[in-house]
Structure formats: C-alpha cells, structure tokens
Amino acid sequence: MNGVETSVRRALAAHFVYLDELLAKTQAACGVARTSRLFYRYELDVPQAGLAAVLEGVARFRRQLDTFGSRWGLDLPAEKVLSSHALAVDLQFLDIALEEMSPSSLSGYGPLGDDFVLDYELLQQALRAEIGTITEALAQRPRAGT
C-alpha cells in the first residue's frame, strides 16, 4: 500500500492487537467477563447506563481500528500464533510467577511461620505438578487436522 511500509503495517497490527487486549480489560471492568475469573477485581459502581455507554464506546473504538486497518492494509488480526505455543509460554510464565512468590521471596515482606511455609510449599508443589500435567497433556494432543 502506498505510503506505508510493510514493517510499519506489521508494527501497527501488533499495536492494534494490544489495544484490543486493553479494550477486553475495559469490558471486564464493566462486568462482561466476570464469570471467567476466580478473583474478580472490580466492584461495579457505575450505573447501567454508564456501563452501556462504555461498552458502546468500546465497540466504536474497535470499529475504527478495523476500518483504519482495512483501509491501510494492516494484517488484522495480526499474524496468528499457534495456541499450543501460546499455552506453552503461558505455562512457563505461571511457573515463573510461582517462583517469584516462593517462601524465600515472601520472607522479604515479613516473618513467615513454619506451618504457613510448609502449607505454602505444598501448594506450590501442587501447582507446579498441575503445570506439569497440563504441559504433558499438551504434548500428547493430536495435531490439528489429524
């Protein structure tokens, strides 16, 4: 497309995907994705009319992104990522997050009782085992189309 280098189109497409992720968080703050989280972060204090206005604004925002992207030949949605890869990366980040909240890391916030440390270490072991089980299940999955 005239006036827009391929590398610029790719960068914009990636940025538009990020904007879409932020819009999904905005929808979550409106209660749209409330049931998908164990620890829901938001207390809804906006009147229904306000929530409706926000959600309508999100829809308009997305339409504008889509229209601009179509007009300038952006690869939207951005280049597809295999779900198997995304899941593997997410599982690695879960493992890192567990490590970052290890008992030794938590001790920097204050003293930890022995009973707590034992129970928390058992929780971490169980969660790491769950990550291992999920990882194994992903490795055993049949390839798409087979």
Automatic annotation (TrEMBL):
<protein>
    <submittedName>
        <fullName>Uncharacterized protein</fullName>
    </submittedName>
</protein>
